[in-house]
Amino acid sequence: MDLMRRLDESLRAMRERAEIWPKTGIVLGSGLSPLAERIERPQFLPYGEIPHMKRSTAPGHEGRFVLGEIAGVPLICMQGRLHYYEGHSMEEIAYPIRLMRQMGIQALILTNAAGGINEGFRPGDIMLLRDHINWMGNNPLIGPNEADLGERFFDMGRAYPEAFRAIARESAKGLGIPMKEGVYLATSGPNFETPAEIRMMRALGADAVGMSTVPEVLAAAHMGLPVLALSLISNLAAGMKDEVLSGEDVIRAGLSRAAAMSALVADVIARMG
Ligand code: HPA
Q: How much distance in Å is there from the Cα of 251 to the middle of ligand 1?
């Protein structure tokens, strides 16, 4: 079945269930699941209830949509994202972003956990994405172009609009949360990087590295959907400290900073209106 037909079927299932119609979409990263607790009058829709949606298998990812409100803004939140390393195709990862766009979202807020490459970063820092480097070796837009969604060739220079970043800076300042800004590089994972890869990524201009976000940003940019993205720096990247990196530590770091991240995202949503 072609993409637009599948999206129509998923949209119909959403229409039958959703008690609100969202204006903003949010994707929660590893360990950042508690952010969903900020959502007022939440309605939970497991991915399995929506035709054509894949389920999330990654630890620390619940695998459901949460519909509700923050500061009076109707929103839809993905509590649990789909990753390339889980074996999902790029198109499957892009699918919920396209579905949320079909529901009418006007802004997409993405969060993730990432390793800090910039030597000025510390674990627990929050980084606002200014730009990204796609090091995944794949792209959700490969294949026939769906003209109803966007153009074959599309600009990436405004994928992370300055207007959104200015709002995030104001929010961080108002809340007294120090915020870094930088370039996120995405790998396929699932391994953490080698120290040599981290030196290469730093030389390429990356400030942080992770295993998500870029496919979702590409799908959003294709549809002209503006993105605000935040990384929680859960650890310093490989070789920067004498420590063994683990997925459990990434989730623990996410949870320990989930309150700050949640406050920031909630305030951004209120300011975006
Ligand atoms: N590398 C890649 N992805 C990550 C890291 C890292 O060091 N930390 C959290 N996600």
A: 11
Per DSSP, the three-state class of 182 is: strand
> Which atom, in ligand 1's list, is nearest to the CA of 245?
7
- Model confidence at 69, pLDDT cuts 50, 70, 90, reads very high
> Ligand 1: which residue has its CA nearest to atom 10?
114
Quick check: CB of 116 below 6 Å from ligand 1? no
Residue 238 Cα to ligand 1 midpoint, Å, equals 9
Which ligand 1 atom lies nearest to the CA of residue 253?
9
Instruction: State which ligand 1 atom lies nearest to the alpha carbon of 193.
Output: 1
CATH hierarchy code of domain 3-272: 3.40.50.1580
In this predicted model, what pLDDT tens digit does every residue of 184-229 receive, in sequence order? Answer: 999 999 999 999 999 999 999 999 999 999 999 999 999 999 999 9
Helix (H) or strand (E) holding 258: helix 258-272
pLDDT band at 30 (very low <50, low <70, confident <90, very high): confident
Q: Is 123 in the pocket of ligand 1 (CB under 6 A)?
A: no
Q: What tens digit of pLDDT does each residue of 36-59 get?
A: 889 999 999 999 999 999 887 767
| Euclidean distance between CA atoms 176 and 227, whole angstroms | 23
Asked if residues 99 and 105 have their Cβ atoms less than 8 Å apart, the reply is no
Cα–Cα distance, 29 to 10 (Å, whole number): 23
Domain locations along the chain: 3-272
pLDDT score for 226: 98
